[in-house]
Amino acid sequence: MRERIADAARANNRSMNAEIVSRIQQSLDGQASATGAFAAAKLQLAERPVSTLSDMKSVALALGEIKDEIASVRHQQKQMLSLLAESNHERSDNE
User: Fold this and answer.
1) Where does the Arc-like DNA binding domain lie (predicted)?
2) Model's pTM, two decimal places?
3) Per-residue model confidence as pLDDT tens digits over 40-72
């Protein structure tokens, strides 16, 4: 994974730290999007109560997808934070 970050950093003309920070920001933006989608689904449910089994299945499916998206974003954030910590540690060792 480190090599992939290094390749992406070179392609984007920035340091590995800048690349990692950019990726973390993208993850946070994605998490906000998923959280917004969850809030929108919650509002929709409040405005139109679920009345049929089909409605319940649709809601359950949508909430499952949102949950999976949030879990994916959190996983990406953890990976990026780990890489950032590793990069900072290596940089401090070289100084």
Assistant:
1) 1-29
2) 0.48
3) 777 766 667 667 887 778 778 877 877 887 888
